[in-house]
Write a structure and sequence with these properties.
Layout lengths: L2 E2 L6 E2 L5 E3 L14 H4 E3 L3 E4 L3 E11 L6 E10 L1 H10 L11 E5 L13 E5 L8 E4 L5 H8 L3 H12 L1
Parallel strand pairs: 3-7
Antiparallel strand pairs: 1-2, 4-5, 5-6, 6-7, 7-8, 8-9, 9-10
């Protein structure tokens, strides 16, 4: 998708349509010298002290006047029983009647103040695909943008600092 930036005036080919966070926010609350013994993590899951459970997912925002979407790669804290369900179906087929899991975003998403700990529904995907996160409150800025969509200008404002 080619795009003329209203901020810098340049044309950009293939505007990045996703930004992801490598670890949940609570990962950084553990001192670096304790992480190896207290944290078990991969690119997709994180367990802290065997009692805090996090999964990485995708929080999509539709782009207005486009068939595309912008995707935030974020983490959600979930209960242990939901974590076990996630692990059970990670590399298999998801039953059609499996209800959404519940969680809370871990960390504030850039440009969305107060998004830390925002409640989300988590929809598992088949065959090693990251789950989809849906913000429960349509009254928050992030929930509004997920429901109504964002402009390409807003996408550019997300990724512009990374293009420099």
């Amino acid at each position: 998708m080619s795009y003329k930036c209203n901020i810098c005036g340049k044309f950009h080919d293939n505007l990045p349509m996703d930004i992801s966070y490598k670890n949940p926010a609570d990962y950084f609350k553990v001192s670096p010298n304790e992480r190896a013994k207290r944290i078990q993590n991969t690119e997709d899951v994180c367990v802290i002290d065997n009692n805090e459970f996090y999964i990485r997912g995708v929080l999509p925002l539709p782009v207005i006047d486009s068939n595309d979407e912008f995707r935030w790669g974020v983490w959600a804290r979930i209960e242990e029983q939901d974590f076990m369900i996630y692990l059970k179906y990670w590399d298999g087929n998801i039953p059609e009647n499996l209800p959404a899991l519940s969680g809370r975003l871990s960390g504030e998403i850039k440009d969305y103040p107060e998004s830390d700990m925002l409640p989300v529904e988590i929809y598992l995907q088949s065959k090693n695909q990251r789950p989809i996160f849906k913000v429960l409150s349509a009254k928050t800025p992030l929930g509004i943008d997920q429901e109504k969509g964002i402009t390409l200008e807003k996408v550019h404002s997300f990724v512009e600092p990374l293009l420099k």
